[in-house]
Amino acid sequence: MFRQHCLNQNPKSSHALAAYSLLVFLLFSQSWPSIIADEKVAKRHTWQEAFKILGISWNYDGTLKREIQIPMVDATSSVTDPKNSPVALSTDIQLSPKSKAYVRLYIPVNPPTDTKLPLIIYLHGGDFVLFSASTVIFHEFCNNIASQFPAVVVSVEYRLAPENRLPAAFDDALNAIFWVKNQALGIGGRDPWLDYADFSRVFLLGSSAGANIVYHTALRALDFDLRPIRIRGILLNQPFFGGVVRTPSELRLIEDPYVPLYVCDVLWTLVLPSYANRDHEFCNPISGGSYLGRVPRLPRVFVKGDEDDPLTDRTTQLVNLLVGYGVSVDYQYNRGGFHGIELQNKTAAQSLYNAMKNFVYSTTVTDDEDSHASY
User: Fold this and answer.
1) What's the pLDDT at 45?
2) 26: number of Cβ within 10 Å
3) Can you say how many angstroms the Cα of residue 258 is from the centroid of all Cα atoms in its chain?
4) How do residues 106-157 score in pLDDT, each as one tens digit?
5) What is the pLDDT of residue 288?
6) Cα–Cα distance between 223 and 185 in angstroms, integer?
7) From the CB of residue 356, how many other CB atoms can be counted at a distance below 10 Å?
8) Secretion signal: which residues (predicted)?
9) Rounded Cα distance, 167 and 283, in Å
10) pTM for the whole thing?
11) 3-state SS track over 181-227
12) HEC string of 21-36?
């Protein structure tokens, strides 16, 4: 089943391996046009320009110095000022004493006591190389989802590239799902806030790079028995994909101020396994690879794209792939808009919240069974 909605919207880490990757990166940068396939882009831009746009630079050990300081905020576990109450409560939970892995858990300020809430596992954006679950823009995004849906939200802190290239982020997302399963089973106890969650209504949600992570994690999760939790759907907001052959939207918006093509090329060089190009399945999901045979088993999928996002044709390609495999897709295509619009425009953000809420609350057990999903 394929539902398409068109909306009018017109606002405008091993260190040794990392050091080796840095050496390779610098050697190849001397012939950068061979890496950036479009010669017009190669003639106008360098990887140094891309690093400046991203606010990153190399450390001597091959790790990145991240210089753009979007504020990070602490979790808000209680209401301390009734006159200035948060829209949701949040708390950080360490997943393992052996690592820095954690999730930030959200619930509404006044969660219902007579019904269970859907559980949303969220993966933030940031090009795979930037930001955190505690970055303020993603923290507020999760606050609003928890309060407006309402829902219990588990926001995943995942490892960043190039210190930890893909599939490290996929592994972290899958481990977060396993943690939710253990919480449902009460293994090692259960956080009291998760008593509000309906473990039979779990959804995976991601924006941009986070949507890429969600897509691949959903496919990988099909290999595991996750009972008693049930993943009923996945939500992909402006998924970040790429490929060697340029799409019309990439060329039409080649100098896009938010995701210019030459910056995307540099990002994929930092993110993908060192042996891979942009047609690797982690970047280009329609190119083949080990996951395609699992696609028909996916549950319902919500996909949102914007006309003036250079990645919009990649989004449409993915939708066509899913539909071709018989997956039920709800495709929200916005006229106008741009990549990350919901982080800057309140009207666009509210429209996205409403569409995602409708998807989550309209997904029934029957829908899930019809999709042949096997979680």
Assistant:
1) 92
2) 11
3) 17
4) 999 999 999 999 999 999 999 999 999 999 999 999 999 999 999 999 999 9
5) 87
6) 19
7) 24
8) 1-37
9) 11
10) 0.89
11) HHHHHCCCCCCHHHHHEEEEEEEEEEECHHHHHHHHHHHHHCCCCCC
12) HHHHHHHHHCCHHHCC
The total number of residues written for the chain in this structure? 375
Question: Residues 204-248: pLDDT tens digits?
Answer: 999 999 999 999 999 999 999 999 999 999 999 999 999 999 999
List, by residue number, the catalytic residues. 208, 309, 339
Render pLDDT for 86-105 as a digit per residue (tens, 0 to 9): 899 999 999 887 778 899 99
Strands lying side by side in the sheet with 117-123: 2-8, 329-335, 300-306, 231-237, 197-207, 117-123, 152-156, 102-108, 88-94
Within 8 A by CB and 6+ apart from 79, the residues are: 85, 86, 89, 109
Strands 88-94 and 102-108: antiparallel
Q: Which of 274, 271, 253 is nearest to 262 (CA)?
A: 253
88-94 vs 197-207, strand pairing mode: unpaired
Q: Does 162 sit behind a cis peptide bond, omega within 30 degrees of 0 on the bond before it?
A: yes
Structure tokens at 142: 């999760």
CA–CA separation, 303 and 329 (whole Å): 7
CB 368 within 8 A of CB 337: no
Query: How far are the Cα atoms of 29, 33, 250, 251 from residue 38, in angstroms, in the given order?
Result: 15, 8, 10, 9
Confidence band (pLDDT; 50, 70, 90) for 40?
Answer: low
> Half-sphere exposure (CA, 13 Å, Cβ side) for 270?
25
Query: Which residues of the chain form beta strands (DSSP E)?
Result: 2-8, 56-58, 64-66, 88-94, 102-108, 117-123, 152-156, 197-207, 231-237, 300-306, 329-335
Name the β-bridge partners of 159.
none
What is the pLDDT of the chain when averaged over all its residues? 88
Report which residue type is found at 336.
G
Give me the pLDDT at residue 366, please.
Answer: 59
* 113: amino acid identity, one letter: T
Contacts 24+ apart (CB under 8 A), 37-43: 37/244, 37/245, 37/246, 37/265, 38/246, 38/251, 38/254, 38/261, 40/254, 41/254, 41/261, 41/262, 41/265, 42/262
Of 25, 20, 138, nearest to 75 by C-alpha is 138
CA angle 147, 151, 155 (to 5 degrees): 95
